[in-house]
């Protein structure tokens, strides 16, 4: 099948050099590229291995971490990246393997070149699986770049905005509204200035008075419980249709939320625009988008106020930086999503620190550290993605600023891909969660 | 740390959509004054362009070039960079006067230092190289066909294979000139038709339609860009690619042209829009599948800066290389390979 396809496309110059006819013109194409083509402008560093690890903190985890390790011919020089894709770990692991031959024997410093090659030469424009595989590889290449050039990645990106770190938010993680005062008190002690919550239950295409009122009340309770000096984002998680979301988003305007996130599913920009233009509440979206290309229409049509692309899916450091650059001239802010492992979390902090239109950084943790954060500390040797005075501190060492051994991951073997939550309405029809 | 020097005020004032940008709050932030921080600088002006030299506490020096910078502009930019880390070039960029020689020169000098700190060419700091060499665009000057043909001959002998030529605003004259040049150059040589922004959209559209089947690489500045909607006429009535932006000061000007679907080739002036700003404009252009061809009419430092830009973006196509500012061979310029800008600079000559 592959051979047939190549023969078919050969005249278009997609196949190796033999099929390309020189036109003698100024813009002549080159069909094949030798491994040493960049020898004069690259470095002597070569990629020797691309390893990928599925890491399940619990055997039944539906979101095992996918960590990528790229090794080089230079003693001790390797890079780590993360391509965790919830519910699809094995697919990303397979996709990273598919990219091995793009990388082995090549110079890891050519990060933009490798990014383009992985994205463009995949032919099918990347969805979340390819996007997450590219993300893991891209982060590992940046980690190597930083180490080779002797600088933390945020400096290579032209930062930091603030040497003390980047502003972050935790998830509310409260046991009902009676628990909000405790969260508020803990937040004040830790200097936390922002939280994110959700809306209860699942929503049909059109909803009635009781469920809509409950959603609005839950947001009002959160504002009342946390007070007016803490910023609040509310994640609708695309559980609502544009029809239902519009009602809630409009009625919570007086609560001055920092943003409403994913008020409807992300494929249809005009549907989200309908919600956005009916309210002054800022709209945030983007965690499921891959590549800067898929953010263009949202930005151009003025649909969103805040973009939340995820460094583990969008295409790594390279792509997250570009989304920021794309959003900046439109005055759109960046609040990247981060709900996976510590490597992607730390990588995104580097990009945030060099993003002039950065607003706030997520981590899916609460004010009180959880089990997973103890594991992260055990792996990396410091409390990764825990805020100090409301900010994520910037790693100071070259590259992404941590080291991790393969040995440390062995305690958490890959448990395979497990499906994410599956929820249904009362009549058995499929519900968004 | 006391609560008084908190970077983002608590509570952050959020009312509706009025959110304060991190960059708007930068001025209040403490400076670094570390080894990589800028301690001094010097301005060299030589008519057509200016060169800025910046120095760090650790003793490194970086150079950058831009369209002429006045002493007052230089002093204002020095006040911005003094005490800041050379590597914080993206944070410094929005604090410089956009689209000025100072923005271009200071950004380049900071990147020169960052590259020296990393012991790598600037394009490697910026994620490149994306290519092994960069396609060069030469300029043919002259007002008659004979003068242009002379220039063509000598520039071809110097290694150029693509040329920017002045293009008359009348369609028959434009076609005639293009045919004369094409015939003399033969296959394998390409042309950018430079209309210099002087024609009206109506004239430009007539010229573009007349030359489109002769396949120029693009038409450069076919008309003024003040009215983006008016230039849609040129793009609608012809398929000749259009290049705009030599006079642009801000990334948003390119964004507007891209949104209106009237631009094929972004022409950021490397002496006006910095490497960093041009690179960000290239990131915007990439999502519209549009090309970047840095515009440059100054000296060697500007050419080197444009080469580093070309080698750090995926959607580069050609760059202006003024004669004598870099070696051009078989249509391409080599990329610098030494740390920072990677060219030797003789201050005496400045």
The rounded Rg of chain A comes to 23 Å
Rounded mean pLDDT of chain B is 91
CATH superfamily of the largest domain in chain B: Enolase-like C-terminal domain
- Nearest-integer average pLDDT of chain A: 92
- Poorly predicted spans of chain A: 1-20
Over the alpha carbons, how many angstroms does the gyration radius of chain B reach? 21 Å
The CATH architecture category of the largest domain in chain B equals Alpha-Beta Barrel
Q: Detail the poorly predicted runs of chain B.
A: 1-28
CATH class of the largest domain in chain B: Alpha Beta
How can the largest sheet of chain A be summarized?
9 strands, mixed
Order of helices and strands of chain A: HEEEHHHHHEHEHEHEHEHEHEHEHEHEE
| Quaternary organisation | heterodimer
Measured between the Cα atoms of the first and last residue of chain A, the distance is 39 Å
Biggest β-sheet description of chain B? 10 strands, mixed
Compute the number of structural domains of chain B.
2
Q: How many helical stretches of chain A? A: 15
Give a count of the beta strands of chain B, DSSP E runs of length 2 or more.
13
Q: Which strand-content bin applies to the residues of chain B? A: 15-25%
Give the helix/strand layout.
The complex is a heterodimer of chains A (433) and B (350).
Chain A: H1 2-9, E1 47-55, E2 65-72, E3 78-82, H2 89-98, H3 100-103, H4 111-120, H5 128-149, H6 153-156, E4 166-171, H7 180-190, E5 194-198, H8 209-226, E6 231-235, H9 242-251, E7 259-261, H10 269-276, E8 283-285, H11 296-300, E9 306-307, H12 316-327, E10 333-334, H13 342-352, E11 361-362, H14 371-380, E12 391-392, H15 406-409, E13 423-424, E14 430-431
Parallel strand pairs in A: 4-5, 4-11, 5-6, 6-7, 7-8, 8-9, 9-10
Antiparallel strand pairs in A: 1-2, 2-3, 4-12, 13-14
Helix pairs in contact in A: 2-5, 4-5, 5-12, 8-9, 9-10, 12-13
Chain B: E1 38-46, E2 49-56, E3 61-66, H1 71-81, H2 89-92, H3 101-118, H4 122-125, E4 133-139, H5 145-157, E5 162-166, H6 171-185, E6 190-194, H7 201-211, E7 218-220, H8 228-237, E8 242-244, H9 251-259, E9 265-266, H10 275-286, E10 291-292, H11 300-310, E11 319-320, E12 328-329, E13 332-334
Parallel strand pairs in B: 4-5, 4-11, 5-6, 6-7, 7-8, 8-9, 9-10
Antiparallel strand pairs in B: 1-2, 2-3, 4-13, 12-13
């Amino acid at each position: 099948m592959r051979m047939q396809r190549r023969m078919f496309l050969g005249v278009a110059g997609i196949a190796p050099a033999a099929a390309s006819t020189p036109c003698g013109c100024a813009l002549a194409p080159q069909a094949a590229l030798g491994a040493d083509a960049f020898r004069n402008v690259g470095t002597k560093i070569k990629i020797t291995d691309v390893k990928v690890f599925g890491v399940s903190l619990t055997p039944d985890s539906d979101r095992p971490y996918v960590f990528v390790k790229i090794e080089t011919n230079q003693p001790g020089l390797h890079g780590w990246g993360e391509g965790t894709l919830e519910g699809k770990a094995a697919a990303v692991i397979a996709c990273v393997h598919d990219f091995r031959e793009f990388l082995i024997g090549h110079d890891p410093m050519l990060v933009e070149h490798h990014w383009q090659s992985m994205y463009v030469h995949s032919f099918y424009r990347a969805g979340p699986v390819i996007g997450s595989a590219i993300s893991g590889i891209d982060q590992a290449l940046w980690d190597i770049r930083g180490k080779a050039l002797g600088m933390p990645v945020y400096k290579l990106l032209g930062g930091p905005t603030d040497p003390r770190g980047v502003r972050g938010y935790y998830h509310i993680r409260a046991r009902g509204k009676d628990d909000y005062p405790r969260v508020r008190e803990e937040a004040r002690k830790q200097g936390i200035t922002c939280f994110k919550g959700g809306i209860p239950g699942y929503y049909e295409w059109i909803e009635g008075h009781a469920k809509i009122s409950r959603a609005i009340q839950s947001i009002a309770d959160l504002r009342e419980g946390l007070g007016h000096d803490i910023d609040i984002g509310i994640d609708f998680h695309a559980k609502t249709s544009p029809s239902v979301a519009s009602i809630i988003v409009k009625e919570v305007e007086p609560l001055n939320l920092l943003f409403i996130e994913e008020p409807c599913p992300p494929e249809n920009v005009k549907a989200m625009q309908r919600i956005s233009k009916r309210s002054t509440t800022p709209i945030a979206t983007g965690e499921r988008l891959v590549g800067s290309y898929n953010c263009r229409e949202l930005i151009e049509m003025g649909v969103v106020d805040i973009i939340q692309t995820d460094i583990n899916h969008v295409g790594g450091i390279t792509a997250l930086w570009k989304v920021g650059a794309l959003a900046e001239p439109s005055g759109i802010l960046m609040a990247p999503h981060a709900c996976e492992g510590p490597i992607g979390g730390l990588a995104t902090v580097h990009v945030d620190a060099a993003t002039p239109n950065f607003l706030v950084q997520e981590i899916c943790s609460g004010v009180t550290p959880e089990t997973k954060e103890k594991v992260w500390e055990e792996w990396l040797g410091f409390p990764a993605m825990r805020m100090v005075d409301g900010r994520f501190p910037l790693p100071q060492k070259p590259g992404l600023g941590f080291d991790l051994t393969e040995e440390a991951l062995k305690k958490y073997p890959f448990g395979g891909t497990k499906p994410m939550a599956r929820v249904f309405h009362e009549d058995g029809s499929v519900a968004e969660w | 740390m006391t609560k008084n020097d908190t970077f983002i005020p608590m509570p952050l004032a959020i009312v509706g959509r009025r959110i304060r940008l991190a960059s708007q709050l930068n001025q209040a932030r403490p400076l670094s004054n570390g080894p990589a921080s800028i301690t001094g600088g010097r301005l060299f002006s030589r008519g057509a362009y200016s060169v800025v030299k910046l120095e760090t506490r650790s003793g490194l020096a970086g150079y950058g070039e831009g369209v002429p910078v006045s002493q007052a502009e230089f002093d204002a930019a020095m006040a911005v960079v003094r005490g800041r880390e050379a590597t914080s070039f993206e944070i410094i960029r929005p604090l410089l006067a956009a689209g000025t020689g100072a923005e271009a020169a200071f950004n380049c000098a900071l990147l020169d230092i960052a590259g020296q700190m990393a012991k790598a060419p600037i394009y490697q700091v910026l994620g490149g190289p994306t290519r092994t060499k960069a396609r060069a665009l030469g300029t043919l000057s002259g007002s008659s066909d004979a003068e242009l043909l002379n220039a063509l001959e000598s520039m071809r002998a110097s290694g150029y294979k693509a040329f920017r030529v002045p293009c008359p605003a009348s369609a028959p004259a434009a076609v005639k000139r293009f045919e004369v040049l094409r015939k003399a150059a033969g296959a394998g040589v390409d042309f950018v038709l430079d209309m210099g922004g002087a024609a009206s959209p109506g004239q430009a559209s007539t010229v573009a339609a007349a030359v489109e089947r002769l396949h120029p690489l693009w038409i450069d500045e076919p008309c003024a860009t003040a009215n983006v909607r008016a230039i849609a006429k040129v793009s609608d009535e012809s398929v000749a690619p259009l290049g705009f932006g030599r006079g642009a000061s801000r990334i948003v000007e390119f964004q507007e042209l891209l949104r209106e679907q009237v631009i094929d080739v972004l022409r950021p002036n490397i002496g006006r829009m910095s490497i960093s700003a041009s690179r960000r404009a290239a990131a915007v252009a990439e999502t519209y599948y549009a090309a970047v061809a840095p515009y440059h009419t100054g000296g060697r430092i500007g050419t080197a800066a444009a080469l580093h830009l070309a080698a750090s973006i995926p959607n580069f196509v050609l760059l202006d290389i003024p004669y004598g500012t870099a070696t051009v061979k078989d249509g391409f310029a080599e990329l610098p390979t030494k740390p920072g800008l990677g060219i030797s600079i003789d201050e005496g000559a400045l």
